[in-house]
Amino acid sequence: MRIAIMTGGHSLERELSFRSGTEAEWAIKELGHDCKTFDVGSAFVHDLTAYAPDVAFCALLGAPGENGELQGLLELLEIPYTHSGTLATALTMDKTKSKAVLSESNLPVPKGKLVHRQDIEAEHQMDAPYVIKPNDNGSSLGGLYLVENLDNPPPKIKENGRDIFMIEEYVPGRELTVSVLGDRPLAASQFEFEGVNDYVTKYHHASENHTVPAQLPCDVETRLMDLALATHRALGCRGLTRTDFRWDEARGPDGLYILELNSQPGFRRNSYSGLHAKHCGIDFPQLCDWLIQDASLMR
């Protein structure tokens, strides 16, 4: 098969996308396929159509791969592709809209709202503790703040380029993440850190604070896996996804809250999803092959 590896992009996660693309290229070559890498952050459509791939392998984070733009283009070009479709990808990129869908499906999400940066800096917008974060960025990029009490003034937003942020209640306890492949929850990771899981914690100290599988009571693990699959389905996702959670341990299974779903999680052998698959006996080339075989249009 001829596989086009779609990577790069023009978001803050561009460099992380290239890492996923490099790993995907290695795995696809291990499977014996012909492949070519395309940077979707530059002019690529002419070269892509000339290559005439059988499948487009989506190995990128952020726009335009995680907001539906790339999927819409691939539909127009009639090139089957991996991961979720146009609508699901666009929906999951918008944290507020996806949380609204999950809430309508009676799935637990923290309370939150969109607020202009001027209002955030002028006065506290909800009871502490609360978190300030972008509505549409991943990898904890674009600004992430934890406000632990109301005695201090609200934070000043350092990041430029956006005016609207999500304000969300902070759920105490552990952060967890679960990968789903098709209709199968794979495994859970747990993180050990103080405060919020920012970019440095995720990408520079992951091996120090990250455990697979998560060490959880049986009833909590069952509930967690059920919620991950329910989230995947409620948002109309396909292929591989990863859902992030907070768990308030004092409340047992009822203390699990969904933070967000990643429709194209980082795709590397040592990424969370790569490790979840490995825990289930699926090596990285096998994971890649599953996604290629699952590729289609009208997802």
From TrEMBL:
Keywords linked to the UniProt accession: ATP-binding, Cell shape, Cell wall biogenesis/degradation, Cytoplasm, Ligase, Nucleotide-binding, Peptidoglycan synthesis
Subcellular location per the Swiss-Prot or TrEMBL entry: Cytoplasm
PROSITE patterns recorded: ATP_GRASP, DALA_DALA_LIGASE_2
Top-level enzyme category: ligase
Annotated catalysed reactions: 2 D-alanine + ATP = D-alanyl-D-alanine + ADP + phosphate + H(+)
This enzyme's EC code(s): 6.3.2.4
InterPro entries for the chain: ATP-grasp, ATP_grasp_subdomain_1, D-Ala_lig_Van_CS, Dala_Dala_lig_C, PreATP-grasp_dom_sf
Residue stretches making up the ATP-grasp domain: 99-293
SUPFAM superfamilies the UniProt entry points to: Glutathione synthetase ATP-binding domain-like, PreATP-grasp domain
Co-factor(s): Mn(2+); Mg(2+)
GO molecular function (one): D-alanine-D-alanine ligase activity
Presence of the UniProt keyword Flavoprotein in the record: no
GO cellular component entries: cytoplasm
Any one GO biological process: peptidoglycan biosynthetic process
UniProt cross-references to Pfam families, sorted A to Z: Dala_Dala_lig_C
Biological role stated in the UniProt entry: Cell wall formation.
Family: Belongs to the D-alanine--D-alanine ligase family.
Protein name (Swiss-Prot/TrEMBL): D-alanine--D-alanine ligase
Species of provenance: Roseovarius albus
